[in-house]
Amino acid sequence: MVKIEQIDEMKWRIPRQGGMRVDGIVYASAALMEDLREDASLEQVANVAHLPGILGASLAMPDIHWGYGFPIGGVAAMDAEEGVVSPGGVGYDINCGVRLLRSGLSAEEVQPRIHEVVSALYKNVPTGVGTGRRDLKLGKKDLEGVLTKGARWAVERGLGVARDLETIEEGGVIAGADVDQVTGRAFERGAGQLGSLGSGNHFAEIQVVSEIYDDAAAHAFGLFPGQVTVMIHSGSRGLGHQVCTDHVKTMVAVAARYGFELPDRQLACAPIRSPEGKRYLGAMAAAANFAFANRQVMSHWARESFAEALGMPVDRLGMDTVYDVCHNIAKFETFERDGKKVRACVHRKGATRSYPPGHPQVPERYRAVGQPVMIPGDMGRYSYVLAGTERAYADTFGSTCHGAGRKMSRTQAKKASRGRSLMREMEDRGVTVMAAGMATVAEEMPEAYKDVAEVVDVVAKAGLSKKVARLKPIGVIKG
Amino acid sequence: MSFRSLDHTADLSVEITAASRDELFAEAVPAFTDTMVDVDRVEALLARRIELESPEVPLLLVDWLTELLYLFEVEGLLFRRAETTIEDDGGDEGGVRLRAIAWGEPRDDARHPIKVLLKAVTYHGLEVGPVGDAGGGWRARIVFDI
Question: Mean pLDDT across the stretch B32-60?
Answer without folding.
Answer: 95
